[in-house]
Specification:
The complex is a heterodimer of chains A (324) and B (323). Helix content of chain A is 44%, strand content 10%. Chain A is an alpha/beta fold. In chain A, a hairpin with a 2-residue loop joins strand 4 and strand 5. Chain B is built from twelve helices and 14 strands. Classes of the chains: A alpha/beta (324), B alpha/beta (323).
Chain lengths: 324, 323
């Protein structure tokens, strides 16, 4: 699978944008600009960027509650994302969804979801519709290790496999289901082992290696597109911050050993990829700086847009409950 | 006009809608080869094939979740959940997703899905195959809940439900499946949210839905002999319920009895009763009375089962208490 320099730099750019976006929203959250709950994905950018690069324009993606990076990688507008986080009218969901419900149907981003595992059967339903209509689109369904214990996960994977639905199941195993270590919430080490039970291929990869993510997803997409059915990909990764902003583990060691956090920070996917690109001569220090500055500029624009945007009108509390 | 059963009316509606619109597809447990546990989907698999009529594993969460996804993507899924009691298995997909998706994603897509399910007591099916489930869903804005009492209403309302762009729970009372009535052969619709006066009267409004409509009609015939003229209001749709038909009827009769087969506490009758009291308390000749099941699971023993669900005699008694 050959990748052009442009493709590589695009992946890197998305990773940088995702990282800067996430750093900034954390700051804005503590400045009380963003209400509600915030789940930072710092440390998991290789997954978002790798999947985003592998998808064809007609392909679709469903995500979880930690998916700002996926939205950026799928090509969503950071202005409308930021406005949604600010609960403004100009956001993707008119300020009625927030971080946990970001969606842009036209871009194929079918929605973040606040119910762990809740979107797994949706992905199968959407992909079933694509199969019935012969659109050739494939849906990538992202969820975490915690979701792999939900009944909906088992039911949906079993059904997708029977019906050979064009879907790719992508489990982002960040080793903790909220605060509970994986070994306490499941007796298996590799979640991809579960694929055997549904009669589909399962593979475990390094979720901090954007190229491995890209290549694996690409293969699974090809397989699904050919009509051979779903694949379960498990990508091991790590979130640098707490489960949510406000997680007490951030200030007091409750469930994650500090050495473990440091070990994973040393494997930072953005830094690792940047080093690799430099070592291979694909990118110069000036270009790295330019990409970083460009990302920061776009995010500042997004913040200004969100700040200047109006609140939804009070009457909008009662719109879109039903289709008229 | 020809007379067919409610089951046949439902089956005919499914055939006609699948014929008319190729985005309609049917899936659920045992719906293809067997044609549904009660026979509602009989013949569809032979006519439309595997692609549009699918047997699923016993996976209600996936059934409802896939209906959500397929609806988001523009198809019109009609899913069957064999018994209403099994709705607990897919409650999250209905409450947190089907009902909220359009709202939380700001109307980016429609949710044209139907979930059909068999509800109600009377088959000696025991506590986990007999209950009435509407109250689990009436407090969830975003859903429509349809509850027909006759073959005519079942066909017209099912066609409307399939054509509607909102998620619809379509409740079918098991004891009405073999109930026969006149049904036109051609497709037709009945608006969701419109009740119907099944028997006009002037002294008391008996407001009911599904099986209790027939008990209310029996009660009205008995009361007629005793000089009380009862008007039977069939809501037909539980959410959104027809407020106007209630106001019109009760402003005429000044008395109301609400009947349902679900347990009384927290049942939908409480909503109707409150609505009437809020709207026309000072016009009433007597407080609104509810006739409902006792607050217990539905027992297996036939004598006990008949005892806990409302009877025609209970309705007669309740009406008389208002005079």
């Amino acid at each position: 699978m050959l990748l052009s320099r442009d493709q590589l730099l695009n992946m890197y750019r998305k990773m940088v944008e995702a990282r800067r976006f996430e750093e900034k929203v954390v700051e804005l959250f503590y400045a009380a600009k963003i209400p509600g709950f915030l789940h930072s994905a710092i440390g998991q950018e290789a997954i978002a960027a790798g999947i985003g690069a592998a998808l064809e324009p007609q392909d679709r993606i469903t995500i979880h509650h930690r998916g700002h990076g996926h939205c950026i990688a799928k090509g969503l507008d950071m202005k409308k994302m930021m406005a949604e986080l600010f609960a403004k009218k100009t956001g993707y969901c008119g300020g009625k969804g927030g971080s946990m419900h970001l969606a842009d149907f036209d871009s194929g981003m079918l929605g973040a979801n606040g119910i762990v595992g809740g979107s797994i059967p949706h992905a199968v339903g959407v992909a079933l519709a694509d199969k019935m209509r012969g659109t050739g689109a494939v849906t990538v369904c992202c969820f975490g290790d915690g979701a792999s214990n939900q009944g909906a996960f088992h039911e949906a994977l079993n059904l997708a496999s029977i019906w050979k639905v064009p879907v790719v199941f992508f489990c982002e195993n960040n080793l903790y289901g909220m605060t509970v270590p994986q070994s306490y919430h499941q007796a298996i080490r590799n979640i991809s082992d579960r694929a055997v039970g549904y009669g589909m291929p399962g593979v475990t990869i390094d979720g901090n290696d954007v190229l491995e993510v890209y290549v694996t997803v690409r293969r699974a997409l090809d397989r699904a597109r050919k009509g051979d059915g779903p694949t379960l990909i498990e990508a091991k990764t790590y979130r640098h911050r707490g489960h949510w902003e406000g997680d007490p583990d951030a200030t007091e060691e409750l469930y994650r050993p500090r050495e473990e956090i440091e070990m994973w920070k040393a494997r930072d996917p953005v830094v690792t990829f940047e080093r690799e690109l430099k070592e291979r001569g694909y990118i110069s220090e000036e270009e790295v700086k330019a990409i970083d500055e460009e990302a920061r500029r776009k995010i500042e624009e997004a913040i200004a847009f969100a700040e200047d945007s109006p609140e939804p009108d009070i009457s909008e509390a009662l719109t879109d409950i039903y289709t008229d | 006009m020809r007379t067919i059963s409610m089951l046949e009316a439902i089956n005919e509606a499914l055939h006609q809608e699948m014929e008319r619109d190729e985005t309609v597809f049917v899936f659920g447990e045992d719906v293809a080869r067997q044609g549904g546990d009660f026979g509602a989907t009989r013949g569809l698999w032979k006519r439309f094939g595997d692609k549009r009529v699918k047997d699923t594993p016993l996976s209600e969460a996936a059934i409802a979740g896939i209906a959500n996804g397929a609806a988001m993507a523009g198809l019109r899924p009609v899913a069957e959940i064999m018994f209403g009691d099994f709705m607990t298995e897919c409650y999250d997909q209905i409450v947190n997703h089907a009902a909220k998706a359009r709202y939380m994603y700001a109307g980016q897509f429609k949710m044209p899905l139907v979930i059909r399910t068999a509800v109600g007591a009377g088959m000696r099916a025991g506590p986990q195959h007999s209950q009435s489930i509407e109250s689990w869903f009436v407090n969830v804005p975003g859903l429509f809940i349809v509850a027909p009492s006759t073959p005519y209403d079942a066909k017209g309302l099912l066609i409307s439900s399939i054509r509607d762009d909102n998620p619809v729970l379509f409740l079918e009372h098991k004891m009405l499946y073999n109930f026969k009535g006149e049904v036109p052969e051609e497709p037709y619709t009945i608006p969701i949210g419109k009740g119907e006066i099944k028997r006009p009267g002037k002294d008391v409004s008996v407001i009911a839905y599904m099986k209790t409509v027939h008990q209310a009609l029996e009660a009205a015939a008995i009361l007629d002999n005793e000089g009380i003229s009862a008007e039977v209001v069939d809501l037909r749709t539980i959410i959104p319920y027809d407020r106007q038909i209630i106001l019109d009827s009760v402003s005429k009769t000044k008395r109301a009895v609400v009947v349902h087969e679900a347990p009384k506490t927290g049942g939908f009758g409480a909503e109707i009763s409150s609505f009437i009291h809020e709207q026309m308390f000072y016009d009433l000749e007597a407080p609104v009375v509810r006739v409902a099941a006792l607050d217990c699971p539905v027992p297996f023993n036939p004598r006990l089962e008949d005892y806990v669900v409302p009877s025609t005699a209970d309705i007669v008694k309740a009406v008389k208490s208002l005079f």
